[in-house]
Design a protein that fits this description.
Elements lengths: L1 H12 L13 E10 L2 E11 L2 E6 L2 E5 L1 E5 L2 E5 L6 E7 L2 E8 L4 E9 L16 E7 L7 E10 L2 E8 L2 E2 L3 E6 L2 E7 L4 E8 L3 E8 L3 E9 L24 E3 L5 E3 L9 E7 L4 H17 L4 E8 L5 H15 L5 E5 L5 H7 L11 E5 L5 E6 L8 H19 L1
Parallel strand pairs: 21-22, 22-23
Antiparallel strand pairs: 1-2, 1-9, 2-3, 3-4, 5-6, 6-7, 7-8, 8-9, 10-11, 10-18, 11-12, 12-13, 12-14, 14-15, 15-16, 16-17, 17-18, 19-20, 21-24, 24-25
């Protein structure tokens, strides 16, 4: 009943009158999501025609082609992820909600035409290009480290934060005077960073949707490095291989002992359809597998889903497979929670499941040879290039053995 009440509230706010139907019209829109009282997260999108648009985050272009009009409202379904923008259109202005049904979350959403992402009104007092040693929630039990990597030209800033479990994807923003603002919206992430900057420090707040915020601090550090992602997750003493049995969409129970995987190099991907870093990794693996599946290689993904039923979880999995043209199997490992502790119960031979995604590399004899925690995606620039080089070299080595 909570879900029905949840959507009923959203729909009530979007009154229905068949006589007032308007359609999205061509052009660039500046959208805002309310993340806190008086704090808005902006992003931009361009309407190509009434049924397609593109969302922009720095170099990222998200193509959206599932747009419906019902009565006086538009329903914009974000690709891959569950997020849905529902808005009433009036005079080329949108007012409504961003809804994630399975998580019982919604945010106020507005958009209007022909505005830039952030106001660019004051000359920047500093340039933050470079690397930054960053601490989120400093001096607390929830503290964690990250590495900020940014490029700035005049007022405009792009970049991301890398952590030991993944990156914050494509961030875009400005420095006005000594005030930094960065944001991204991709249908799963709704991130906003606001901060005061100097030549050597950044101090600010990080907002994730309207359900989480935390302070962060950063110091310029061109030599700062995070932990080695190949050392963070390991097999427990007494284990040298992985074992699991999980269902596919057809109800077949799939195990690593199946003939499909025997005498082959196997990459096991721990992931979730809700996870943007997993999306980046899945795009890479889908392309790699398509180009190399004639070799003694298999990829299999284990999905840990917050969807409360198997049917709903498999619908999310199918959506991901169809959108990314994934031809390797994705098995359903867990529903109802994305808890890493619960995930570890399904894979007890690991010391922990620290991150979605995590990749486990298994040689032709069935032994685990490497476990890679997290994923440095395309927003990380050189780090993504380094990952691809290392990945190709290591997999080729295993294939040649």
């Amino acid at each position: 009943m909570r879900y029905f009440s949840f959507l009923l509230i959203a729909m009530t706010l979007l009154s229905c009158d068949k006589n007032d139907t308007e359609f999205l019209t061509f052009g660039t829109y500046r959208a805002e999501l309310q993340v806190s009282d008086g704090v808005q997260l902006p992003f931009t999108f361009k309407v190509k025609d009434a049924n397609t648009l593109e969302i922009y985050n720095a170099d990222e272009v998200i193509k959206v082609d599932e747009i419906e009009y019902k009565n006086d409202s538009v329903y914009i379904k974000l690709p891959v992820f569950e997020g849905l923008l529902i808005a009433k259109i009036k005079d080329q202005t949108l007012n409504g909600r961003f809804v994630v049904k399975q998580k019982n979350r919604q945010q106020i959403f507005t958009a209007s035409k022909n505005k830039s992402r952030f106001e660019n009104s004051t000359k920047a007092k500093t340039n933050i290009s470079g690397d930054w040693k960053t601490v989120f929630s400093p001096n607390t039990d929830d503290s964690y480290v990250a590495k900020g990597v940014f490029k700035q030209k005049d007022n405009l800033v792009t970049g991301t934060f890398l952590t030991n479990t993944g990156d914050y994807r494509y961030l875009e923003g400005v420095v006005n005077g000594n005030q930094l603002k960065l944001s991204t919206f991709d249908g799963a992430h709704a991130f906003l960073f606001t901060a005061t900057v100097t030549d050597s420090t950044i101090n600010g707040q990080f907002y994730s949707g309207n359900h989480w915020k935390e302070p962060f601090t950063a110091k310029r550090s061109d030599n700062y490095t995070l932990a080695n992602p190949n050392d963070l997750t390991v097999l427990k003493d007494g284990y040298d291989t992985l074992a699991f049995t999980f269902p596919d969409a057809n109800g077949n129970q799939v195990s690593l002992t199946d003939d499909r995987f025997k005498n082959k190099v196997v990459i096991v991907q721990i992931m979730g359809t809700w996870c943007p870093n997993c999306l980046d990794e899945s795009k890479y693996y889908a392309e790699y597998y398509k180009n190399n599946k004639d070799k003694e290689l298999e990829v299999v993904a284990l999905a840990f889903e917050y969807a409360k039923t198997q049917d709903k979880a498999f619908s999310f999995i199918k959506r991901l497979q169809d959108r990314l043209e994934i031809t390797y199997p994705i098995l359903l490992a867990q529903t109802g929670t994305t808890s890493k502790a619960k995930a570890n119960e399904k894979l007890p031979m690991l010391n922990h499941v620290l991150s979605y995604p995590t990749s486990i590399f298994i040689d032709k004899t069935g032994k685990v040879r490497k476990i890679h925690t997290g994923f440095n995606g395309p927003a990380t620039g050189d780090k993504f290039t380094e990952f691809k080089t290392e990945f190709n070299a290591f997999v080729n080595k295993l294939l040649e053995e």
